[in-house]
Every structure is written in structure tokens, then in C-alpha cells.
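Session log. Operator J.P. requested a structure for one protein chain; no other inputs attached. Running the standard single-chain path with C-alpha cell output.
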Amino acid sequence: MSRIASTARMTIRGISSSSVARQEVVGTVGTAPVKRPVGGFRGGILGFLFGFSASSALSIYYLQQENKIASGLLLASVEELQQGTGKISSHLERLQAVEKELNALKNSGAVKDDVSKVRGEMKKVYDGLHLELLDLRAHVWGVEQDLQKVVKTGK
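Structure written below.
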């Protein structure tokens, strides 16, 4: 109880206008906790680890989003390439079919030499027919002359 009374006296004296040196009362129960400075070594490590963890998590999230976008673009490019390849292969099939038809026409078609030979033969046939026509006209003319002679002479 004497302690409480002395503490009370000090507070009363502290309130009064006299200048009394204040003394700190030290308790006998346990030791006073040691105050560590804020931002000391432990606080710095914890802050660093928290900052590093947060920045790592954000970096991983950002990289995953970039990877997802890049994968989508790559998939779209692959699909576009696949469509282009399909178009090219269909064009190639059509070209091959046209080449086969062209080769068949070349094999069955006439060559310039063949056409020249047929033209020569046709000229020969035409000339032969023309000569036969001229012979026939000459023969008909001769028959007409004979007929006119018979009609004039009456026999």
C-alpha cells in the first residue's frame, strides 16, 4: 500500500505547480518488454518476402494470360493454315484432272503432220472429182452435139 500512496503523491505533485523531479516507478513483476524498432531486420525480411510473393504471383498471372493469348493466336493461325492447305490441295486435284484430260486429248487429237496429210489427200480427192466432172461435162456436151446433128439431119 505504501507504493500506491507514493505513486498517488507523485501524481498529485505532478499536477501541482512545484518543480519536483519525477522518478520512474519500476515494477518488480517480470521484465519490461524490449521494444524493437519498426522496420528493423525482421520487419524488412517479412516485407521483402511479402512483396516478392505478391510480385511473383502477379507475374505468373500476367505470363499465364499472355500465354493464353499467344496460344489462341497460334491456334487461329494453324486453323487458317489448314484451310489454306485444303484449298491448295483441291486446286491441285483439279489441275491434275485437267492435265489428264489434256493428255487424253493430245493422244486422241490430230497432230499438225496428220492434218497436213489429210489436207493433201482431200486435195487429191477434190482434184479427182473435178476431173471427173469435167469429163462428164465433155461427155454430156458430146451427147448434145450428137443429138443436135441427129435433129438437123433428121436421122
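Operator note: The CA atoms of residues 30 and 87 lie 89 Å apart.
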